[in-house]
Structures are given as structure tokens and as C-alpha cells.
Amino acid sequence: MEGVSQPPFDPAELEQRILDAIRRGASMEDIAGLRPARMASPEDAIGALKEGNTRFFSGRATRPEADANQRRAQIMTQTPFAAVLACSDSRVPVEIVFDQGLGDLFVVRVAGNVVGESGLGTLEYATEHLNVRLIVVMGHEGCGAVAAALMSEAEVGREPENLRRLIARIQPSVRDLPPIRDKKARMREAVLNNVRHQVALLREQPVIQAAEARGQIRVIGAYYEIGSGAVDFLTEEEDLRP
Ligand SMILES: [Zn+2]
Questions:
Q1: From ligand 1's centre to the CA of 183, what distance in Å?
Q2: Residue 98 three-state SS
Q3: 30 alpha carbon to ligand 1 midpoint, in Å?
Q4: What is the CATH number of the domain that holds 36?
Q5: 198 lies in a domain?
Q6: Ligand 1 center to residue 211 CA distance, Å?
Q7: Whose CA, among 62, 132, 170, 225, lies 20 to 30 Å from 160?
Q8: Which band of pLDDT confidence, cut at 50, 70 and 90, is reported for residue 66?
Q9: Counting beta carbons within 10 angstroms of the beta carbon of residue 143, is it exposed (0 to 12), middle (13 to 18) or buried (19 or more)?
Q10: How far, in Å, is the centroid of ligand 1 from the Cα of 137?
């Protein structure tokens, strides 16, 4: 049996184990069972994302996609180890940035990585029914949606109705920013503050709150730098306070 002291998640090793299981005629349930047992804690899940991102930004990505055996192993069920709330921005493809494959991540992508009812329900589903070990709210460098939230009311007023509502979800996060003259640094702070607000919002939901209290999950923040490809993780409570 898999214990809690498993080595960090290694996609290549997992692929080999699935292959071995298929060769020895293991049932689909057994093969599916290879996955969740390996991610024993939220810390393991954070470690897997950090390692995957390091592979990505250092040009050593394994790109574990579309392998026939992995697909077959997932017919019965999905067992993603983390849920990620990220921006729809085309430069922030979550699986690629974390070098993860089919079935690894449960992803919600909305411009500005803010959640409404459907987004919250999706993350509740991931927590309650898929038993993910981690929820990551990931903002990114140069986020157009956050930039829009910094525009004047007159400018925002010219946008279509639903887009205005989306921008309105981000605005409270950027309203009381400290005065930072450097434009790039100011944008980064706005994105980070939006991430912190979304983390706080998720933590207000009873299902997520209870899962975090019993140690099933952690809710953390992240900042993706498009230029370098590196993700900064916000894991300390002081980094997460809005
Ligand atoms: Zn964005």
C-alpha cells in the first residue's frame, strides 16, 4: 500500500506504474487507484506543482499529455490532485505551466481569476467529490482584467454589461492599493491583492472551509510571471492576507 511518506509525484514513474499495471491485467479500478494514493497531503500537491513549474520554466518539461495508457487508466474516474482557479489569458495555460498531464488538475479559468456562483460550485465539487488536496488561485503578470479594474468608472461604463459585472468583481481588490509609482510594480500588487481576495472568498465557503479545517486541502495563492515562466507561490498566511 502507498503510505504518507511517498516520494514526490513523478509523472514518468507514474506512467511506468500504469503501464506495468495494464500489462499485468489490473482492473480499471486498480489502475485508477494508483493515482490518489500518491498525493498524500496538500504539501505533496504543492511540491508537485513546484516541481512541474520548475521543469517548465527551465526547459525540461515532460509534457505528459495524450498518452493512450494514461487515458485508458482514467476511464472509470478522474482523480485530479489540485484545483486551480486561473485567468483565461491565452498565455496562462495551467497544465502546461505546471507540466501536468491528463487528469492531474481540475481547472477553472475566468478572466481575472474571479469566481461567481458557477466557479464556486465547480470548486466545491472538486473539494467535496473529487477530493483534491489543494486549491490554487493563480494571478498573472500583465492581467488585462485586473488592468480593466483599475480604469476609471467612465471607461468601465463603456464596456458591455456582463463584462462590467466581471470587472466589478475585481474592483474591490484593487481599490485601496498602496501608492506605488512604478507601473509594473503597481500592477503586480493589484494582481496579488486580487488573488488574496479570491483566496479569502473561497475560504468563506463552508465546504472549502471545512475541508481546510480537517486538513484535506489548503487554499493558496500563486503569481505567474509570463516573462520567466516561473510561478511564485503564496503559501504563508501573511502573504495571503488581503
Ligand atoms: Zn488575466
A1: 16
A2: coil
A3: 39
A4: 3.40.1050.10
A5: yes
A6: 28
A7: 225
A8: low
A9: buried
A10: 12
Residues making up the binding site: 87, 89, 140, 143
State whether residue 91 is helix, strand or coil: coil
Q: Would you state the pLDDT for residue 35?
A: 55
What pLDDT shows up at residue 135?
98
- Categorize the per-residue pLDDT at 158 as very low, low, confident or very high, splitting at 50, 70 and 90: very high
Q: How many domains does the chain have?
A: 1
Q: Tell me the binding residues for Zn(2+).
A: 87, 89, 140, 143
State pLDDT tens for residues 104-117. 999 999 999 999 99
Res. 80: pLDDT tops 80: yes
Q: What angle do the packed helices 161-174 and 183-203 form, to 10 degrees?
A: 100
Tell me the pLDDT band of 85, cut-offs 50, 70 and 90: very high
Q: Which domain holds residue 231?
A: 11-240
What pLDDT, on the 0 to 100 scale, is given for residue 5? 38
Distance 92 CA to ligand 1 centre (A): 8
How far, CA to CA in Å, does 20 sit from each of 15, 30, 87, 201?
A: 9, 12, 37, 43
State in Å: Cα 109 to ligand 1 middle: 9
Do 94 and 138 touch, CB atoms closer than 8 A?
yes
What distance in Å separates the CA atoms of residue 42 and residue 195, rounded to the nearest whole number? 19
